[in-house]
Design brief:
Elements (H helix, E strand, L loop, with lengths): L3 E4 L10 H16 L5 H16 L7 H12 L4 H11 L15 H12 L3 E4 L7 H10 L9 E2 L12 H11 L6 E5 L2 H10 L3 E5 L15 E3 L1 H10 L4
Parallel strand pairs: 1-2, 1-4, 2-3, 4-5, 5-6
Helix pairs in contact: 1-2, 2-3, 5-9
Length: about 240
């Protein structure tokens, strides 16, 4: 019996395409750090820091990994960088709102599943602070109250496509992986990695990111309308 749903965010719960998001995000960062001598280097560090977090071995949080990386490449004080970035996500970051669109069927599906008693977790790749992720979900029309937990760089010590990222979520929340479905549009990071972690997988095909890996198959597949119908067909949890 299914009891839990783990949702990817961009391309799954909300419509947010990297090729649209990144230029606006970088532009907002340039505005924030325009007066700093290391402006361009700070921006490169923020972007490249994601690679360091993806390589995290679980010995520290992704936030700590990012700060260590920043300290190794910048003269700019990392404590000041963190203060500036914290304020950035509450102010200038709002520029990205214009490239985020809602997915009405997925909003309704989350509400349906919540009312039926399923546990819902947002398992977006945890490379951003929680505040940034909560904003994106809200700008995409999702109701934060529908979700029991959102992975972020403050709490995660791994990242996709490492299956230990999902193992960590399962252990933290005490989930039975055989009763858990990962829902996502990235075949490698969501379907393959989720299956490696022992979960069921729903491949969402609105804006699919395919992969050459044929080792794993999705248990379910369809677009947002199909997923809503699937949610509505399920019994009470």
């Amino acid at each position: 019996m299914i009891k839990n749903f783990l949702f990817d965010m961009d391309g799954t719960l909300i419509d947010c395409k990297a090729e649209e998001f990144i230029p606006v995000y970088v532009g907002a960062l340039k505005k924030r750090f325009a007066g700093e001598a290391e402006c361009e280097k700070i921006i490169r560090t923020v972007i490249k820091g994601a690679e360091a977090m993806v390589r995290n071995d679980g010995s520290r949080t992704n936030r700590e990994t990012f700060m260590l990386y920043a300290a190794s490449v910048l003269e700019y004080p990392v404590d000041k960088l963190e203060r500036e970035m914290t304020d950035f996500y509450e102010t200038d970051y709002a520029a990205v709102k214009k490239v985020i669109k809602s997915k009405p069927e997925m909003i309704k599906a989350a509400d349906v599943l919540r009312r039926k008693g399923y546990k819902l977790i947002v398992t977006t790749n945890p490379l951003f602070p929680l505040a940034a992720l909560r904003h994106r979900l809200e700008w995409g029309g999702q109701h934060l109250s529908d979700f029991d937990f959102i992975t972020s760089y403050e709490t995660s010590t791994f990242a996709k496509p490492d299956p230990r990222y999902y193992d960590e979520v399962i252990a933290r929340l005490g989930l039975d992986r055989s009763q858990t479905v990962i829902v996502g549009n990235d075949f490698k990071e969501d379907v393959c990695t989720g299956k490696r972690a022992g979960m069921l997988a729903y491949y969402l095909t609105d804006s699919p990111i395919p992969a050459d890996d044929e080792t794993y198959k999705a248990d379910f597949e369809g677009n947002s309308a199909d997923f809503l119908a699937f949610a509505e067909s399920l019994p009470e949890a």
